Amino acid sequence: MEYKYNAIILNKIDTGETDRVYVVYTLEAGRILARAIGVKKPNAKLAGNLEPITYCEIFLAKGKGRGNITGAIPIELFFAIKENISALEKVFGALKIFNRLVTQEEKDEKTFQLLLNYLIAMEKITKETKESNLKFDILTLGFVFKLLQNLGYEMETKKCAKCAKKLVAGENYFNAERGGIICPACARMQNNKIRITDEAVKLIRIFLDNKIENLGKIKTESQNLRNPKIIAMEAVRWVVG
Ligand SMILES: [Zn+2]
Fold first, then answer.
1. Fewer Cβ in 10 A, N or C end of the chain?
2. Distance, CA of 6 to CA of 1 (rounded, Å)
3. Can you tell me the distance from the alpha carbon of 135 to that of 125, in angstroms, rounded to the nearest whole number?
4. What is the mean pLDDT of each run of 10 residues along the chain (241 residues)?
């Protein structure tokens, strides 16, 4: 049987002299592994369409177990990202986190759309502006928070994740186990807490309440991203276990 998938190529792994295994995130089945036979031969046309960070239609011949890729039609190659070192670095960082958090072969249209829209937004920014490091950073950080939200780890940012009192600006903490921000009174009795800045709380709320494609418009300074980055890493670390 041959199957068609809408796929985003996440990674490629060399296996043997001419073959590769591709890690692919699909609209139809979530994360899958697929083999491409002879893809490393010099005249193989398939390889170019299967580079990581490519959106394509792939055709898979499936018998038992892992399928073989028989063809790929590119839809979006994301050339601007691939030619921009700092964009590329950010996207690879995001994909690394994605690979750690999304490990199952399980259909999830929302997550597929989020990943695709993140790449489209990064591509757009790369084309529009030269000095876009800060925008790359904001978008990528927003992507991580939205990904956690999609996967069922939405961060509580409005009321204390422990006592449910409304949070007030000034002194607050993040606790991964509680899944959100906790007030100073609760923080006193809580291990593994990280101080969270008011600016970080504001940013995370914006990330969670807005579409990924609109996050490039956020105005902030790069120093304001330091704290929410630490919070994101702590949340990912806790979810992965
Ligand atoms: Zn509290």
1. C
2. 17
3. 8
4. 94 91 95 91 86 96 81 96 95 96 94 98 90 91 97 92 96 94 95 95 96 93 96 95 87
CATH 3.40.1190.20 fits 84-240, yes or no: no
Distance 228 CA to ligand 1 centre (A): 20
What residue spans define the domains of the chain?
Answer: 2-76, 84-240
Distances (CA, A) of 199 to 20, 133, 157, 196, 202: 45, 19, 12, 8, 5
pLDDT at 154: 87
Question: For ligand 1, a single-atom ion, which residues have Cβ within 5 Å?
Answer: 160, 162-163, 183, 186
Structural class in CATH, domain 2-76: mainly beta
Distance from residue 187's CA to the centre of ligand 1 (Å):
7
